[in-house]
Amino acid sequence: MTQFSILTQPILTTTAEAIIVPLPVSKGSFPNSKPFHSIDDALGKALTDLYNRKIFTGKKNEIHAVHTLGKLNSRVVICVGVGETKTLTPEVLRHAAGVASRKLQELRATSAVWLLETLPTPEKWVQALVEGTFMGSYEYTDCRSSVETTREGLKSLEFALPKASTAATAALRSGGIVGQAVNTARTLANTPANLLTPTHVLDWAKDQFKKSSGVTLEVIDAKKAKSLGMGLFLGVAQGSVEPPYMLVMRYLPVKGQKPVALVGKGVTFDSGGISIKPSAKMSDMKGDMSGAAAVLATMVAVTQLKPKKNIIAIVGLTENMPSGTAYRPSDVLTAMNGKTVEITNTDAEGRLVLGDALCYVVKEGAKEIVDLATLTGACSVALGDVAAAILGNDQALVDRWLDISTTTGERLWQLPLYEEYLDYLKSDTADLVNASEGRLAGTCTGGKFLEQFVNGTPWVHLDIASMMHYSSTSGYVVKGMSGVGVRNLVGYILGPANAVVRQKKSTRKGTK
Ligand code: BES
Ligand code: ZN
Ligand code: ZN
To answer: Which of 276, 289, 375 for mutating ligand 1's site (highest number of atoms within 8 Å of CB)?
Structure first.
């Protein structure tokens, strides 16, 4: 476990093994270059030389280690590029911290200090740096038979600031909670589907949400789901031998306040069912519970952050499998709110799981709802792997989410919920089909389907399918499941005043 702390002594007195220096593209463009020069001078201008020879240019995520060979107490100075100081954002530093954390691992450093005094508003980057350190050094090793255990790991990471402050100390703590929650979500999603069935998630949740945690856990098993009328959810689950569960987590610290609701798609494996998926990349569908993973990990963060806000969270956990008992195209299922759905494609199962989960939180009196789901492949077609989609029935709420995402760095892009999309979902036999014919506006029709189950409650739907998985490692991004959604969810729960460094408002709203 790494200890995080603030260092206020002059940087040259440090005995940390590594000094990490964030460096801009133009040397000398820092607001305060004194600490940089003190290191550069001690190293016989080695850092200046790197710039002069263009060995290091300061562009984002560039990294270069200079061995001090006894010229400093520290054995290595790690230069990390941050681009232009004028356009510095927490996201740039999250990535820089990710790159640096892997360099520290490579160099077997057990202690390090970040030199922040050269940056504008130094203390404002602390939370992002802690988050990036956790995320960048993440590795999923649970299934390896041998892991390098001799490595000591990073024991201490300090942040050199001109002065200590309660804000900086709080940033260390919340950065750690958020970073670890992202990694928790990644591990849940990375765990193979045979090792993470709905029952395994239930056991995990029982362990996390004990009485002392402040979050109560209610388990809706198949029998209870049947009595509640959750026909859509049970329809998906009927093809699997694994028992399905809806898990309801309640965190209600404020008397008489309607809760906000967090809803997650938790399909622990999506084979497509009878409308089976092609085999290429089907294994990625172990991550089809990434929405649930984000919600569960956020609730773990809630037990630590203890916000003054009532929250009800629900995750629908099931497999989607083909079998003799599986639901089939042409089946008609009835949702908890009485709406009937003709199944036209058993691979459009996420919206069925969520349909009943949304009905549940509406019945519980949620004042606002957010759902997270790896809902449509079309989301990647629309946005690539650089943003998730947001759709909603209340523009003010959508705008709040867009605002949160500029702060947390988890990009969202709004897609519409035009009335006409409901025509795409017309059925000859039931109230709705679960999947429209053809391939038009796949993410929007998915959202439109969900809207039928929120009964007008202000709601946003985050289709995170595009961001579920990273195909390579860079910055804080580590190849594998992304843990997307946690940072935005925590930002939403804490509210704008408590989120990390505020940035320029979204240009959508016309502010500069
Ligand atoms: N889980 C998938 C969507 C998905 C695809 C997530 C790729 C992450 C990566 C979802 O259940 C699905 O199969 N959706 C269908 C919907 C269609 C049948 C209307 C899709 O996207 O093809
Ligand atoms: Zn599917
Ligand atoms: Zn799915």
So the answer is: 375
